[in-house]
Amino acid sequence: MTRPLTEKRLVLATHNAGKAREVAALLADHAIEVVTAGSLGLPVPEETETSFIGNATIKALAAARASGMVSLADDSGFSVAALEGAPGVYTADWAEQPDGTRDYAAAMAKVERLARHSPDRKAWFSCALVLAWPDGHVESFLGESHGQWVWPPRGGKGFGYDPMFVPDGEAQSFAEMDPARKHAISHRAAAFRLLSEACLPRR
Ligand code: IMP
């Protein structure tokens, strides 16, 4: 049975301040306060799974066990049908440079170079959200946003692979559209909606 979230505070298993802000804003609507794994000095576990849910589960359980509090983790990425779902869980790795910085123009160019020979342009973003309790119970949710990859990249808003993705039913790429529009239809919004319907108290 789905376990509801009755606590008013949870740990967000991220060391990324941008993500923390975004999720804190979504949870504030449900009167839930967020503390980050980073601010508690919790260790960062290795993401050794081959699925978004698997990696988000590793992060959420590690934070729940280390903090003794309910924890929420996410894992997300970009998948291309012609590449059998790659880069997938390796989405961030494809942008990694030898000096440790991330170059998304280079990562998008790699996707295009590998996928250009296929007429199949289908692509999708995925976002896994996992809630974990200190006793090991987990609730997992997967949101997806389906569409096509386009080349050359379009638009200067957004981040990551946004400029090469046009969602189904839209004329603009994620990087061209108003951020409010992206947030309404994104994989992250879809996953959060599922989590909220299943586990969060109604206001
Ligand atoms: P992680 O979830 O922090 O491991 O990052 C996943 C990777 O997917 C990063 O490289 C992000 O840039 C990329 N990504 C996740 N969501 C989006 C999105 O909404 N737009 C563009 N790129 C994204």
From TrEMBL:
Active site, renumbered: 75 (proton acceptor)
Keyword Hydrolase: yes
Signal peptide: none
Keywords: Hydrolase, Magnesium, Metal-binding, Nucleotide metabolism, Nucleotide-binding
Top enzyme class: hydrolase
Sequence positions that bind substrate: 14-19, 76, 159-162, 182, 187-188
Function, as annotated: Pyrophosphatase that catalyzes the hydrolysis of nucleoside triphosphates to their monophosphate derivatives, with a high preference for the non-canonical purine nucleotides XTP (xanthosine triphosphate), dITP (deoxyinosine triphosphate) and ITP. Seems to function as a house-cleaning enzyme that removes non-canonical purine nucleotides from the nucleotide pool, thus preventing their incorporation into DNA/RNA and avoiding chromosomal lesions.
Family to which this protein belongs: Belongs to the HAM1 NTPase family.
Protein name (Swiss-Prot/TrEMBL): dITP/XTP pyrophosphatase
Organism name: Roseomonas populi
